[in-house]
Structures are given as C-alpha cells and as structure tokens.
Amino acid sequence: MEATVPRPVAARVPSAVMPWVALAAYPVALALTVAVGTGDEVNGPATMLPILVLALPGILLPRWPLVGFVGLLVGVVGLAPLNISGLVGFGQAIVLDVAVAYVAATRSRIATAGAVGTAILAEGAAATIYASNGNEYVNVLVALLLGVLVAWLGGTALRQRRDYRAALLTRAASDAVTTERLRIARDLHDQVAHSIGVIAIQAGVGRRVIDTQPDEARKALDTIETASRETLAGLRRTLVALRRSDAEPATTATAGLAELDSLVTTTEAAGVRARVRIDGEPRVLPPDVDLAAYRIIQEALTNIVRHAQTENCTIIIGYALPELTIVVSDAGRGGIDSGTGYGIPGMRERATLLGGHLTAGPREEGGFEVSATLPLPADQA
What we know:
The chain has about 375 residues and is an alpha+beta fold.
C-alpha cells in the first residue's frame, strides 16, 4: 500500500516563484510604512533605493537560508544609521525574523542558536536608534525580542512537523515492505509446499515399484513432472510480478478457484481423493478473495497429504451471501499442531487481511478440519 500525505498549500507554488514574491512584497511593505510614517525623515528614491538593495538577500532564503540571513542582518545594521521612521525599522526587523524562522526550519540547532543570538544583538542595537527615550527603548526592545522568539518557535515547529512527517513516511514505507515480504513468503510457501509434498510422495512410490510395477512407476514420474512444471510456472509468475513496476499493468493471471480441478487432480495423484461440494451459486470473486480461497484450500490439502494418513478428504465451498465459506476436512489422524509450521498461520493471515477469520483443529468425530470465512464486497453481496 502506498502512503500519501496531503501537500501544504505553499508546496503547490513553484519554488522559483516564492523568492520573487518575497522580494516584491518586502520593498512594497517598506514603502507603505514609510508613506504613513514620518515623511520628513525620508528622502524619496534616495532612501528607497538602499531599502531595495538591502532587501535583495531575501532571494537567498529558500535555497541558502544562512546566507540570506546574514545579508538581511547587514540590512538591519545598514538601515539603522538612516534614522528612518520607526515603522520602517520594525519592518526590517520583521524580515530578519522571517530569516530566523527559515534558519530554524531548515538548519541544525547550532545554526539556529547562532542566528537567534545574532538577531537579538542586532535588533537590540537597532532599538537604541529607534527609541527616543529609556521607556520607549524598553518597549521597542521587548517587541523586537518577542518577534525573534515567535520566529524561532514557528521555525522550530515547522522543522519538527517536517521531521515527523518524514518519519511517518519512512515507517509507512517500512511497513509496506514488511507486508510485501510476508505476502511473497506466503505465496512461495503455498506454491512450493504443496508441489514438493506431492513430488516427495510420488518419488517414494516410484522408488518402491520401479522394479515390480514399472507402469505405476511411470505414472509417479508423470505426476512428478506435472507438479514440477506447475510449480515452475507459479514461480515464474511470482518473479514477473516482482519485477513489474507499479506503473505497469498486470499481465499474468493469479491463482484462483478456477484452478481447483487441477489442484484436486494433483492431490489425488499424491494418494488423497478430494470430494468437492459447492453450496450456492458460484460467482466471479474479487482477485484477492479468489487467490486467498485457493491458497487456503491448497495449504489445507498439503497438510492432509503430508500428515493426515488418509485417502479421502472433503472440500466445501459456500457462496452464501455476504461471505464466502471454505471447509476442508478429513478423517485422518488429526492433522498437526498449528505451532509446528508456517502453513496454518499463513492461512489465518490470509483470512484476517481480508477481514475474515479461519479456524483449524481436530474434529470431535476424528480427523482435522480447516474452516475459513472470507467477506465479500458490498457489490458482491
């Protein structure tokens, strides 16, 4: 599964546009503050030109926050001797605070601490110029320090949010990899275990009768060949699926209940006759449900062939809405403990992943039974 995180509104704006917007907005804001400030202290273009020049380092903030911060810091120091209106001084300080936020959001804690300390010193020195008396100096200094504090907290919060989001994406990717590994392990186990069990039994039969009953030995070899080819084809399908990128459409068919007859034939070749009963009207199943149903039956038959020591078993498939039911039972010696292998846990995982459940254990009348319930989607039900 693929984890998606909504993109912030700012992320939808091309990165190349942001610096130019900031560059245009900054001198405009300064011009407005000058217009409503003490006009006598401003000499028109002679003053606005230095303001524009001192704003240029703002372009560097998105790509080189530290360099942009130093440039704007020079602007604060360079603009102060012009003794422009206090509103302009505050505008310059606000832009420096934005640079502090940029550094806090994108750089290390050491760099952030240096930027915060330098901004405090620079704005504290500027406050002595903009304040006309001691009381005003304290008020201006407190306002400037609060601006730096808010910028630092805001930038730190943005950095923590970004780090948290990155951690979530990393964990989601790791979980997806783990889930895929488990799925591949289940598929390989189900594909190989059944066929290897059949091959082992038929090889033993062929070895015992090769001298006395060559025809039976030939049948055993034919069964081994068929099982081997089917396993090889299944492994090839798995490898093709693994090599296929997410953008490519699936071109290989997955196993499903349509192949149940072939599975029953292979099981009978291993010495266990399987009787199949269908309850309800068969219908086309979703691929994941179809595959899970087939693999559960396949693993149940594999366990019967290996451990039940019986010649007969029963497969019941129920299409009663709103779920698909599967029961595989035998009258053998009771099967195996669910803790001795991966087969039963794998079957249970397949059912659980689809929102169903599976039970496996000895029957009261003898033998072993696997019972699974797989929910069907609403449109199927």
